[in-house]
Amino acid sequence: MTRHMESRLKIDPFLELTQRHGLVNAALPQVAVLTLGLNVGTGGEWLIKTGDWVEEEQIIGQGPQGRVFSPIPGRVVKVTSMVLPDGTESTVAAIALEGAFKRTGKSVNPQPWEEWNSTRLFEMLEYYNFLATSSALEPPFHLDPRARIKKVIVNLLQPEPYQTNWYHLCLYEDQNIVTGIKILKKLYSPEVIEFAVHKRPKDYAARVISKFGSGTYTVTWHDAEYPAAHSKLLSNSETSLVIDADSLVALSLLARYSRPQVESFVTVSGSGVAQPKVYRVKVGTLVSNLLEECGVSSSGEHSVIWGGPFSGYRLQTDTMITITTRSILVLNPHETRIAEQQPCIRCSACVDSCPVGINPIRLFEGLEVKDGFQELRPELQRCLECGICSSVCPSRIPLLQRFRQERRNQ
Ligand code: SF4
Ligand code: SF4
What we know:
alpha/beta, Ubiquitin-like (UB roll), Rossmann fold, four-stranded antiparallel β-sheet, globular, disordered N terminus, binds iron/sulfur cluster
């Protein structure tokens, strides 16, 4: 029988544990471990070798998605391979911190990006390999200069329980979010700006919206349901662009200061963390180092989840923060246990909870039959990989894991 983690979390959808602890800078990594790309096996090459010295934000690699920048100054100590959070293996470069930072901690005047036209802005995005995300539930993408975008949807919805980046960014990075939206207006001249926000708490979104100016936007209010933040649930139109708060902050920092994406906002939460917070973390920081800073011992019995409780991965080995890392969840043993998969009891909980109307158990069983695959392909393509079906299943059937595996094999 398949063994996998059973989550027995009491889900508080919103502020959770991080609310009173705010957003803080994580300690600088003594060693930063960088990947060439966001996926394994997609090529690229390092422009550095062991023993080289690099400056902060120097281009050190050409990955499949674009240029790779060093988050810290230092010396290249190793170019090797490492297991990524999803279990795949990738080439990595390890840089030991040494020397002075050119940008971090320095006061720099903003560039006059308002005077630039969209062509110049897109050139900048391409040079710095800017990658946006619609939500923490989806892979990153480049902003396409050829796209005809009529509506920009500013996604301020919580992707999964515990993931409170959106709340903290609205409170502490509101100006950058607003600037990010203004840059998108310049890039695409959309007809509509829409804010997708939760009905409660209202204060966080109001802070951003009030700074945006009157009469130039619409607001859609959402219930506390998961996975409301997935872009396909917000819009399926090719002329809509859904973008999250993390990406808007990064877009603002790039246009105003030419800062590549060498930092990520990461919620570190869960009952295994004494002081849950949202951290501004240098990309390449090892998860073990970040957890140490949060008072989590590497020898503890807790479970470390990469991502949210529904769709996250349980980390088996140490790995590094990337630009798409949004949350790390640390759970105590009494909250998780290894459960045996049981036969389906036809309770239909998975069917009732799927946000896109898939029958998960029918799909799961269909995939077990070799000849049935072609027929099931469209249904598999519709799956958002949100993990709600697996989470509600009383028989602990690994529905999401099976769908993910099948999509990767396609
Ligand atoms: S099948 Fe499961 S993982 Fe896929 S969208 Fe439905 S609930 Fe989410
Ligand atoms: S929730 Fe689990 S037990 Fe219930 S119908 Fe779906 S797969 Fe079967």
